[in-house]
Design brief:
By secondary structure, the chain is mainly alpha-helical. The protein has a single domain, classed as Orthogonal Bundle (Recoverin, domain 1). It is built from three helices and two strands. Strands 1-2 form a two-stranded antiparallel sheet.
């Protein structure tokens, strides 16, 4: 976050607090990726986090697409047009 290619816990906390996240959420998520417990996310730990986030993003996109398909089918069934 501060161009040193590492994210330390204070940077992480301050950034997420500003976005409205609670301390417990911040600490839990940081701890999930800070595998060595040094309160710094190194390049490998960041890579793992980004991989998980990309997978979650794809899952959300798939879920949204499925809901959109279901909504279209429902509207066709009920002969409702928008």
């Amino acid at each position: 976050m501060n161009n040193d290619q590492q994210i330390d816990f204070i940077e992480w906390r301050n950034n997420l607090r500003a976005k409205g996240y609670a301390d417990i959420e911040i600490e839990t998520l940081f701890a999930k990726y800070d595998l060595d417990g040094d309160k710094i996310l190194n390049a490998e730990e960041q890579k793992n986090m980004m991989k998980d986030l990309a997978e979650q993003n794809e899952e959300l996109k798939d879920a949204i697409a499925e809901l959109e398909e279901q909504a279209e089918e429902y509207l066709k069934e009920k002969k409702i047009s928008l």
